[in-house]
Write the structure tokens for this entry.
Amino acid sequence: MNAYEIPLTPSQNQTVSVVLLNITYSLTLQWRNAVQTWFLDIADDSGNPLIQGLALVTGSDLLRQHQHLGIGGGLFVVCDTGTDAPTFDNLGSSSHLIFATP
């Protein structure tokens, strides 16, 4: 398995451009205070939405239900402290967004 950590900056909403398997995607991460959860939107390099409102949770492949898009790997949230959910302050430091291919 090959794994790539998507570089994120803790404590801020952000949009990052990443290349996954030679395709550029735009990832927008937003913290929603009301539910204390990070959410992810994925768009192609032209800004066309592919996935919107994906909650960042640990313990499962976030892209599993979206295999029809052909992204070609899995997206996982991994926390240094175990299975805790990522917080506003730790996503990008002790909580990591990982893209993995078989």
About this structure: The longest strand covers residues 23-32. Residues 2-101 form one domain. The two ends are 5 Å apart (CA to CA). The beta strands are 2-6, 14-20, 23-32, 37-44, 49-55, 74-79, 95-101.
